[in-house]
Amino acid sequence: MIPFLEKGGIVMYPILACSVLALAIFVERMIRFSRVQDRGAGLAETIAAMLKEGKEEEARGVAEASNSPMGRVLAQAMAVRDREREILETVIVNAIDEEVRGLSSYLQSLATIGNLAPLLGLLGTVMGLIKAFMVIQEMGGKVNAAVLAGGIWEAMLTTAFGLAVALPTIVAHSYLLGRVDQYEARLQTGAVTFIKNITDR
Questions:
Q1: What is the pLDDT of residues 149-195, one digit of tens each?
Q2: Per-residue pLDDT, 144
Q3: What is the pTM of this model?
């Protein structure tokens, strides 16, 4: 690997840094998602049932103790459950948006890396080709096919490396974005269940 990095030139190192950063973001997000995956399941129904029984303080405690996106959304909703319907819905929408932003952290950085890596690879290839043609000029037009081929394949290394980093990064970004969409849909479903089941609505 190291010889290829050396032959590819200095641009190979920023691409390598991009790959390390993309992997770190993916692993961090997967750990975060695994922690919240099962939290809050059935919480909306449980909270709504407790509110019907008049156990408001207990319900708030259960929501906060769940330490889940759904629990935080419901805790904010319970704080305004006696207000107008529009206020309740606005609070819920804002709470869901806040949780989605938290779940989406670093995903934009992952998308940026996916776009940046192939461009860095292209830059490295162009720089390598410029050097190769400079050598040809210095040789006075007496082109050695072996030298020319060697210069070109070394220049193309950066493009190949950039694409090798970009492709899995884009796939990872799409996968994580899909997970965020699932969580958002789950929060919205829970919020609707909560609104339908609370009393005095």
A1: 666 777 788 899 999 999 999 999 999 999 999 888 888 888 888 88
A2: 66
A3: 0.81
Which residue type, as a one-letter code, is found at position 68?
S
DSSP for 136-196 reads HHHTTT---HHHHHHHHHHHHHHHHHHHHHHHHHHHHHHHHHHHHHHHHHHHHHHHHHHHH
Distance (Å, whole) CA 69 – CA 46 = 15
Residue 187: CB atoms within 10 A of its CB come to 25
Residue from 137, 108, 85, 118 nearest 11 by CA: 118
Total count of domains within the chain: 1
The whole-chain average pLDDT of the chain stands at: 83
* Per-residue pLDDT band at 113 (split at 50, 70, 90): very high
Domain enclosing residue 80, as ranges: 2-197
Q: How far is CA 44 from CA 7, 41, 50, 71, 84, in A?
A: 58, 8, 10, 8, 20
- The tokens describing 115, both together, are 């776009």
The pLDDT tens digits of the residues spanning 44-103 come to: 778 878 877 777 788 888 887 887 888 888 888 888 877 888 888 889 899 999 999 988
